[in-house]
Amino acid sequence: MDTMRERFAAVTSRLLDEDPRLAVVLADIGVDGFRRAAERHPNRVVNVGIREQLLIGVGGGLALTGMRPVLHTFASFLVERPFEQVKLDFGHQGVGGVLVSAGGSYDHPAAGFTHMAPGDVALLDTLDGWTVQVPGHPDEAEVLLRHACAAGDDKVYVRLSTQANARPRPVTGSGFLPVRHGRPGAPAVVAVGPLLDSVLTATEGLDVTVLYAATVRPFDGATLRAAVEGADAAEVVLVEPYLAGTSTASVAEALVDVPHRVLGLGTARAETRRYGTVEEHLVDHGLDPRSLRERITAFVGRADRSGSA
Q: Which Pfam families match (predicted)?
């Protein structure tokens, strides 16, 4: 199976052939994947070098001319380092584009903390109007990328990962997908992107409803409300591949008139100061299936019914 980044380069290269409005802006990262596309479209595949603020500025400038810019590098260099440019050159200027990241929270541990961005989605939450996509499989990444590139002038962030679920789920670019059903009013577990398989393994035999989220912003409060309907006090567990608790405010807003409690699981705030492997980082942050089961079971306090996935 190809990776999400490989699929991104292949799909976006084809879209460059099909859509003269599309342009790709790179900051040295990912250049090889677009080498042939750059030969065909030298004016619409731009490498600005290791200048991430310029990467965003060029993208915003292209958007002001009516182009649909697609910007790509590691999440720490795409969202965190040039955050002021994201805020001003897209938000303040009122233009749209597609930010496509790699690296995520700990996808490349050997590169150290400079290449990790567990707070990227939380940071974008401080800005208005961003759609945030977190695919869990290369096939989902292709669907969401095509949707984002054709999405008029919207601001879209697509968070790619080296981690992937075993099989894709039907994603549409909006909303949550119920993949396991508990009894009416059972606790709801929202599994984001590549953590779905771990959540399904962790909740096997538990009386919970599992919702899959490949689109996390806008947050699908309606589907969450429907999932916990009938509970005297709703219980919600968020399992996110970035900073723990990033979406707890969204849950509170969705259930503002419903008694509820929420457990936010994800990457811890404390920095893991060892390189290690992705699998070791998952264990360290309590996101492996065994740790998830212990934490979810302790929160919901029951394990008496199997669901269907």
A: Transket_pyr
